[in-house]
Each structure stands twice: as C-alpha cells, then as structure tokens.
Amino acid sequence: MTAQTPPAPPFRDPRLPFAKRIDDLLVRLTLDEKVSFLHQFAPAVERLGIAAFRTGQEALHGVAWMGPATVFPQAVGLGASWNTDLVRRVGEAVSKEVRAMRARDDRVGLNVWAPTVNLLRHPLWGRNEEGYSEDPKLTSAIATAYTRGLRGDHPVYWRTAPVLKHWLAHNNETDRATSSSSVRPRVLHEYDLRAFRETVEAGAVAGVMPAYNLVNGRPNHVSPYLREQLRTWTEEELLVCSDAGAPSNLVDHEHYFATHEEATAAALLAGVDSFTDHGTDSSQIIARVDGALARGLLTEKDIDTAVRRHLSVRFRLGEFDPHDDPHAGTAEFDTPAHRALAQEAAEQAVVLLKNDGDLLPLAPDARIAVVGLLADECKLDWYSGTLIHRCTPLEGLYERFGAERVEFAEGVDRVRLRLADGAFLHVPPAPAAADEARGAAGALDPALLAGRTDLPPLTTDATGTEFALADWGEGVLTLRAPDGRYLSVAEDGFVRAAADQPGGWVVQETFRLEPHENGHLLRHLGTGCHVSVAADGVKVAAENASILELVIVERGTDAVARVAAAADAVLVVAGNDPHINGRETEDRTTLALPPHQERLLRAARAANPHTVLVLVSSYPYAVDVAWLPAVLWTAHAGQAAGTALARVLAGDVSPAGRLPQTWYASDADLPGLLDYDVLGARQTYLYFEGTPLFPFGHGLSYASFCYADLATEVAEGTLRVSFTVANTGDVRADEVAQLYTRAAEPSVVRPRRELLAHRRLTLAPGERTLLTFEVPLSAFEFWDVARGGRRREPGPYDLLAGASSTDIRLRTTVVLDGEPTAPRPVTSASGLEPADFDEQSGVAIVDRTRTAGDAVTPADGGTGQLIYRNSDFGTGTTEVTVGVAGRGTLELSLDGAPPLAVLTLDEPTRDAYTYTSLTAPLTADGVHDLHLELHGPLRLAHVGFSG
C-alpha cells in the first residue's frame, strides 16, 4: 500500500466475518440503493465497485435457458435412481457448468433455482417431472444430495447458491395462482414441511421460492410459515425469492390486498427478500417499495433485513473475494466425465416394472422392431438446457445391436390435407440462407426456433406435402414435414414448417382437427384460431377458416404391425412430449395412455407376442400390463437416454431404478386434484388402501437378492437396524434395499408403512454385504394435534426390510417408549384450535387473519363436520364461547348424540376477518368425542369452554 492508496473498506476485508462485512456495506449503501437490491435484477453500485447481480438461474437437471449444456435425466428420473451419491455428483457437475458458463456469459446466474422439493402427491400434476418423489424422506434425501453438489465442499465459499422450490403444498397447475391448498396441521408437519425442513437442516440451501398458490386461504408469498418454520431451521441467512409475477398476483389475481404497496410490504415483512416481477424492469417494484415506505408500511430497518439476506448469498458466492474464491476459475463444461455421468444417471433411472419369461435382456442376435412416437425422440422439457449430444432409443439400439438388426416404424399417421378445390397444403422448400440459419440456431434452445419468420409460409399445390401426424391424446396433434420440421405459428400469424420440437411457454406447434361439414377445421391451439388459406400463404385467423379433408396415406398401426411381425422382439416406445398434455401451467386429465399410442401397442402385440412396452414419460400411467411380457419405465433421461436404454435392454446394465411414486391402476383410485389432505383422502403409498398397478419403491432386476440376519438395537435416542443382502443371481447388479416402519397399535391414523432409510448398492454374483442404518427415534414421532406438537407414542413398531414398499423380505417388531396418549384438554385457557381436528368432512382451512392463524369453514359454503377425539371436559363445563365471522350456524354435540348447543350468527360480520363472540350454555364433563357441524359461510376461529 502506498500513501496514495486508501485502505480497503471493511466489507472488502476477507479476514473479517461475513456478518461484520455486511454490516459495513449496509451502512455505506443509500436507501435507494438498498431498495434497488430487492428486485431480481439488482443493479451495480459503481461508486462502491459492486457489480450487478441477478437471482435465479434454472438448473433443475442441468443448466437451463442459457444454450448448450449437459442435459441429465429429469428430476423424477433422478428420484427413480434412489441414489444420493449419484445425485450429489450430478449437482456438482451442474454447478461446475454454471460457473464455466458464467465465466463467458454474465447473464448466467450463480443463485440457482433448484431443486424442486414439492412432493408428488398427485400423479396428474403437470409438473410431476420436476419433483423427486411422493415420499418426504426420499425427496429430502435426494434434494439434500443435489444441493450439496450444487453448493460444493468448500467450508466458506459456495460454488452456486441453491434455492428450493416451491414453498408450500403446491401440486396443481389448475388455477394455481388462485387455488388454496387446505392442509391440516398433521399433513403440514408430517408431509409438506418435512421435505423442506430436512433439506434445509442439512446445511446446503441458500433459500426458498414461495409457490403461486395459497395455503389455508393465505398466499404463500405472505406465509407466516416462512418466519415460524423456515427461518428457525438454520442459523444461515436464507434468501426468499418470489416466483415470477407472484408479487403482482397478490393484487391482480388473488385480490388479497387492495394495493400493490400493501402487498409488497406484506410480502417483505413475511420474509420475501427478492421480487421476481416485470422481467428486467425493476422500476415498478422499486416504486411499490418506495410507496410502502412513504405510507409507513415499511421502515428502512425492514429493507435492511431483506438486503442483508441478499448480500449474505453474494458474500458466500465469493463475489467480494475474487482472489480467494476457489471456484472462480472453474472451466469444466461438457467434459468426458460429465458425459459419462449423464449416461450413468440415465442408466440408473430405468425401472423394470415387469419381466415375465426370458424376453429381457434381449438376445444378442435378436431381430428387433422399434416402434412408437418416442422411439426416435430425445425430448426436452421446459427446464432443460439445449442438447450438445443426443441419443434416441432408436439410435442407441442401432449402436448396440447394429442397424441391420433393427427395424423402425414411428407409428404416426402419414396424411395430406386437401382443400375443397382439390389443392393440398404444401411446404415450400427453405431458401439456402434459411437452412444455414437453422444450423446456426442449433446453439439455441429448440423452443426459440418456433418464432422464425425467415422461412416461407405454407402454400398449396396439386400434390401437397405428406405430413407425419402425431396424436398426443385429448385431440392434441402435431404435424411434421418430411424434413423433420414441425408446423408452427410465428407472431405474424403464418404457418411454417419451422420448429425442431414443440416447445415454449405457449406451445405454437399443436393443433386440433374439428369436424366441420364434410371435412375438418384445423385449430391452432397456441392462438385459438383456425388455419386459413389466403393469397399470401397459410395463416391462422379469427375468420375465413379453411375446410380441410384429411387424406390418410398410411396408418401408423399398419406400419407398426408390418415391422413387428418380422421381428424376434418388439419394443413399443410410448409416453409423453413434456410440452404437451401435462406440463407447467397444465395438469393432466387422466392416467390413461393416449388412445393412439394404445392402438399402436395393441397392433404390435397382436402381430408379435414378444412385445415390450417402454414408457418414456414425465409421470405414471395406468396401463393394462397383464397381456404384456415386459414393461420398463424411464423419465426423459437427457442426452444419453438412448444409449442407457439400449444397454439396459441388452443386459449390459441390470436395471435397478425404483418407482419414486405410486402407479395407480385407474383414475378411480385418485383423489381430487385439489384435495391436499393425504391423510383423510388416503393418498400416496403412506395411506392408500387399494391395490396399485405398481407400488412405491417397486423395480425389478436381472439378478436376484436374498435378505437375511435382521437385527435391531436401541441406544441413546437411535435405533440401529442391520441386515445382510446377497446377490444370488448370475450377473453383477445394483439392489435398492429399503427399510420401512409402521406403528402396530396406533391411537390415531398412521401411515400403513413409511420409509425410514434406503441404500443403493452394487453386488457381484455371490457377494454379500451387511447394511446398517442409524435411525433417530424422532423418525417415529407424529404431529399430535391434541398437544400441538410432535410426540412418539409408546408401543410396538414393525420394521420391514425389503425391495419395495410391498416386497418385504424381513420383518421384526421393536417396542419403543414415549409419551402416552392423553385426552385433549379443551377446557384449558387456550381452548380449542378448530384446525386441530382429528377428522373432517366438507371443511376447508382458511386464514384467520391476513398475517397469521387458521380458521375453518364449510368448503362449499354448505355444511362441514369436524371431530375432535378424546376431548377432556374435566370436572365439568357450563358454557361454550366461539369466535366466528361471516354468517351461519354452529352445532356442538358429544359422541354423535343430538346437539347440546346451537350458536347462530344471523347478521353477517363486516368482512371475513371481523370476528365476534357467541356464547351458549353447554353442560359436559369427562372425556368425549366432540362433534362440530358448521352450516353456511361461517368461519370458526376459536372454541373455548368454561365452568
């Protein structure tokens, strides 16, 4: 240092703790500068040498939206691996690619929005592909592994800063910005919060993102659980980033607040620190915060709290210590190791669902027919990066078995579209310059290619173009030109063969044929308009729709039957396109395989009994598998999907993926999409009482395994469980050993079985290994609504070890001590919290106030019933007092007898949050089941009893 060089300010001193450095920097920032940090795109502060910063880099299964990157299997596929070590290594690879891409493009952010830990409660959820499992234990184990990989191992500096999505109880796209998930306390604490909590407590999480929906009547972006739960789980400063547009939803769609200033202030006070709204334009959020400050809704101290969390992440990422940041020079991108890891992950994601006889693995000299809409596809989803490498199932089989032994039939209908005047729709050839542009565009996400206007629109001619028509179900079609380009609609409204794949936030490549007179109208689903032939080309328009005749050149079923008949084995590759019929913004309507694909499957099976169904999908299906000898499932498995699948089919790799969620036999087994009461509705493997198509944890192998020597020991708050697993087969293979428990004599409804631990291991033929699990006794607790906290019930607990939740090989029972069940003390000063019911019918939990607390109300404004078991009225009570709002009647009875008290609120209160007290005589003593019946739009906030 010279006399002319001023000393570095304390916030630049790496010898000081981050907290002191942040204190120093906060003092140096002006209020306007601090407010500007609250938007997703925080500007630079040049006078202090602080660079611009953005929260949010999508990295769910590889770096997304930033061009080419290594593409790993979808999250549900990583969940199917049941392999935490693998997933940690995937997270590590993704974070290294984030750093490498950041070095050459400062638009790439280090605050990564991944993983998604929402539980896969309902298989019709459009975003099923983004989660890991329906089970909170498995979800948190996989999520913890991924975040540890994303964070890195350095004790001080993080490679990337992971943010968990989406807080909380978010599992529907239908009305996602306005629907409320009614979540009883037991489900909240035992299920939805648990996946987040165990991941946060593991120590590699930088923050969370609230979901669009409401929980118990209150938007997640003003959730009191952020303060009451999330921030109590760790001493780290957690950054809460809003979902895109959600701050505005609080007023514009949810109408929860009257003004954006109130909404923004409420969200910030609840714990939202970074506002993702209006894209890169921060002016509106800044204006709202300034308005809230001017109205006294916020103070500068409130702003400092949020900015501190923002800066905490930036310091941990090494931004202010570039010379000490061990990750600054990371350049690992598309390395041989990353490519090998993508293949390993794809192999481990394959689940063998059924394998009767000796059809799989395929014989080395087999003649193979490969058919189906997914047979020669390597599909991307909304959160994929752009493929640098790709291998479809067909390409993988060519590579493994030789092209001369593999026959292919896609199974699409080959069609021409004829107008009333006899002319056909025609794809004109692309100019050479456009083809060159298309090649250059390969560095971009394929979804971006749909908007191209440098290609000529469709025209008409005497012979027309033969299109490949794919029916994805529910009448949704895609049309593909012979050169592989999909028909798409750009902003100018013209129809062109322009897209490499369907994609984009609004998919512009899907159509629907609608019968009309003696032909069809072709509706474009992205715009809702019909196709119209005009003098300047084919376009979509609100009027003058053209009537088209569908001329079938070849049926897909005919082509499938032809190649199937000549093969030794047939592989029908079916499933979904991740941008169609089930994706973000769109839930599925059925578990059934799309009818066209079902027809292809049946045509193949009729032509050749040696037919294998290979499902490549983002979610489960309900398929009649009784007549099929073999069935496999894999999620869309990224760039190495085809190689991995071919190696499994050939027996080079023994499949060992396991289902991370229940596969139900039919739609009739499913609860309502918006019913979040997994306990009351008997949802997921934890409570489902029916017979699934395939159970949670299921997956077969080419080897066989023997379980033995189960032993247990309880000591110092831990249950030690050990058993041996031996490979009794003749091939090297992985096994996934699973340990479950169930309370043998529960006093309340408990899971039929619940995952305690698991381990994926590799065993050579004849090899045996001893597995030991250390299970904390807290794993046997449940949320006791009678006491408002967790409790371990004393008594016997079954321990079940095996290969799935139903394939149990070993079992024993341990007797654990705990706190005995006690009656609910309803006459205490705190009274009865209405949401702490044991059973309910027709009731929704709603917000008691806009900031905290729960109330209950009939779900449809009609009648709702609540039961509180073993309510202790002590030596006697003579009066009941309730806090209610709205209007209606409340009836109280004991043990199902006629009502003992009826309280009626005749005049509606001023609003839903204005409560009044009603009192009635009630004589009761001893222990009884208390029944409450609510009639009308009545909100019940509290019940108290006095003697």
UniProtKB/TrEMBL annotation:
GO MF assignments: hydrolase activity
Protein name: Glycoside hydrolase family 3 C-terminal domain-containing protein
Gene3D superfamilies documented for this protein: 2.60.120.380, Galactose-binding domain-like, Glycoside hydrolase family 3 C-terminal domain, Glycoside hydrolase, family 3, N-terminal domain, Immunoglobulins
Entry keyword annotation includes Signal: yes
Domain Fibronectin type III-like: 735-805
Family of the protein in this entry: Belongs to the glycosyl hydrolase 3 family.
SUPFAM superfamilies named among the record's database cross-references: (Trans)glycosidases, Actin-crosslinking proteins, Beta-D-glucan exohydrolase, C-terminal domain, Galactose-binding domain-like
Limits of the Cellulose binding type IV domain: 825-947
Keywords on record: Hydrolase, Signal
Record-linked CDD domains: beta-trefoil_FSCN_BglX-like, CBM6_xylanase-like
